Amino acid sequence: MKLKYFGTDGIRGLVGGPMMNPEFIKKFATGLARYLRVRHPKGEVHLVIGRDTRQTSEEYEKIIASVVCPYGINVDILGVVPTPAVSFWVDEMEADNAVMITASHNDASYNGIKVFNAFGEKQLEDKEEMLEALMDDETPVDLGGYKACEYVYLPDGVEGYVENVTKVMSRNALKGWKILLDCANGATYQTSRMAFEYLGAELVLRGIEPNGLNINEGVGSEYPQEFAKVFKESGARIGIAHDGDGDRVILCDENGEIVPGDQILGIIALHALAKGQLNKKIFVATYYSNKGLDMAIEKAGGTVVRSNVGDRNLFQKMEEVKANLGGESSGHIIFAEYSKTGDGLLAAIKIIETMIDTGRTLADLRTDIPLLPQELVNLKIQERKPMAEMVLLDEAVKRVEEFLGEEGRVFVRFSGTEPKIRLLVEGPEK
Questions:
Q1: How far apart are CA 60 and CA 421, in angstroms?
Q2: pTM surpassing 0.85?
C-alpha cells in the first residue's frame, strides 16, 4: 500500500511545508516513541540520532530528543555525521532504533528523516506503516509509568565511524596520493577529511565550510561538471565528491572525466570477484543499472541479480541471495561486511584500494566495463492502470525485446512521485 508520510527513502519535504515543520516533527517523534514502547513495553529503550549540516536539522534533532525522553527512552546524539555512521552506531551500540535527519542530495530548503532498525538497516515498509498509524493516533498516553531520561551527546561519534571505515587500509597507505575531496558542505565534512588524512593523503578540499544553509549548494555530487572543472585545475590523482548525507559518491578519473556509476560498481565487483571476495559470485544491482555491467561481470565468471530501486530494496535482495556486495548507479554502494546502507566514503576507499592492488589508473579500470548506449524517457499518463492492462505498450515492449535479444533490454516502471511511466531502452548501438 502507498504510505502517507514515508517515501522510497524515508520522509522528505520542503521546510515549512506540511511534512517538514516543528509540529510535524513533534508528531513524528511522538509516533516513534509510541512505536518503540509498543515493541518494548517495559525496560530500557535506546534511540540514536544523527543529522546533517542543515540549520533545521539541529532544531529537529532537539525536538525529537525532547519528545521521546519522557517515554523513558535513552537518546544518544551523534551530532553531524553521515548516514552510514548512524547505521553503524545503532548496530554497534545495540540500540533499538536510529534516526538520521537529512534530505540527502537536496538543498537546505528541504529536510527529511531516515529511520533505521536495531541492525542498522533501513526500516522495513510494514514497520513504517505501523509507525504512521501511531503518528496519527491522538489517544492520550499516560507517561507516569516511565522514568524520564535525558539525552546525551556521544563524544566519539565521528571518530568511531572513521576508525571502522579506515580499517580496510593501513595507516598512511595513501602517502603520496593527492585527492580532490568535495564534501558538499554536508555531513561528511569532518569524517571524510579525517579518514583520508589518517590514510596519509594530501587533500585539496572543497565543500567543507557548512553554514546551515549551503549544503549541496553548487558543490558535491549534484554538480559533477563544476567538480570536474575544479579537478582539472587541482593536480589531483582522483576526485571524490559526496552528496549531503554521505551515503553515495561520484568520482573523477585522472583525465578529468566523471566516472559513470555503473562503472564504479563494475570496478568494485570485478576486483572482489578476482580476489574471491564476492559471495556466491553474485553482485546485486537495481533495474536501472546498465546491461554492460552484467556483461562485464558475467564475462569474469560472476552473476548480476537485479533489485528494485532504493538501497533498502537493494539490501533486502542482497540478504535474499546471500550477496555481500551491491549498488546503484546513483552511487549508493553497500559492503555488507561493513555497513547495511550505502557508504560513499567506503566506496571511494575501495576504489583506491583497487587502483593500488592492480597498479592501474581509474581511467584504465573503466575500460573493463564498456556500457551500452542507453535512452531513458518519461511518458506522461492520465491514469495509473496496471501494466498488464496497457496492451499497446506491452506489445511494443515485447517487439523491441525480441529485436534486441541478448544484446539489450527494455525496462518499464511507474514513477514513484509523478504521473509518468519511465521507459529505459538499451542496445548495442545508439
A1: 35
A2: yes
